[in-house]
Design goal:
Layout: E1 6-10, E2 17-23, E3 28-33, E4 38-43, E5 48-53, E6 58-63, E7 68-73, E8 76-81, E9 87-92, E10 100-107, E11 113-119, E12 127-133, E13 136-144, E14 147-152, E15 158-163, E16 168-173, E17 186-190, E18 196-202, E19 208-213, E20 217-221, E21 227-232, E22 238-244, E23 250-255, H1 262-267, E24 274-278
Antiparallel strand pairs: 1-24, 2-3, 3-4, 4-5, 6-7, 7-8, 8-9, 10-11, 11-12, 12-13, 14-15, 15-16, 16-17, 18-19, 19-20, 20-21, 22-23, 23-24
Length: 292
Amino acid sequence: MEQVPTSILSNDPCHLGEGPTYDVTTDTAWWFDIREGRLFEAQLGSGAIRVHALGRMASALGRIDAERQLIVAEDGLYIRTLADGAMTLFLPLEADNLDTRSNDCRVHQSGTFWIGTMGKKAELKVGAIYALHRGKISTLFSGISIPNSICFSPDGGTGYFTDTTRAVLYAVPLNPATALPRGEPEVLLRHSGIGGLDGSVCDADGNIWNACWGASRIDVYSPQGERLRSLGVPAKQASCPAFVGPDLSRLLVTSAWQDMDAAARAADPQAGYTFLLEASARGRAEPDVKLA
């Protein structure tokens, strides 16, 4: 396992860090503490960090434009105004089910938003993966327990996802113009050994960078499913990566202290921290979400 230069972006420990993304136009990284309903905002150039209380569990965001974001929360999708943090419901999502919440999500190059939901206690098969396409939500895959690893190939023609409980990373052919499936998911790789498949992001070469929950590492896979690299992370429960920085060469990695007792946290003192890894890779800028 490689030990690359690594720094701490935030030492405010997240109960469940998730959903990192980066706005290249403002050099700003964003991520969530799902369990505590917090949204982190980091100006990478200055190192200044702000934490916003959302009043609900939320797990991901997509940039709409310079003034607005779309927040994926436990009961629906909200438009958040950056100037004042005001949130307005855009569409409900599983709002009538108090036992579920959002989890892993990512915006496709077409502007379509893939959104994962799961049980708040990780109940089996109560979640799903949806697509927000031009203002309407459709169900892509149901019977999901823990949706993760949602990401897309550089040409937009392949989508990836996992149900962490199944330890399988799937690849599904997509219409690049819509991000909607045009075929059935196929097994790309089966995970074995320590840890589990968590959040992922694709780099500019199409490789898949996966946070291996419980194993203190990021694994890099080729589009054919071959493991190419493993990078150490100084927290056991790495949860999701995102490429950041003006040249998108650094890797932001969130982590969590969820389900750790006092002894486990003492043995993993940086659990929940957010890290920057010098990845020596080329990322891709995240696209804006399209609402209409």
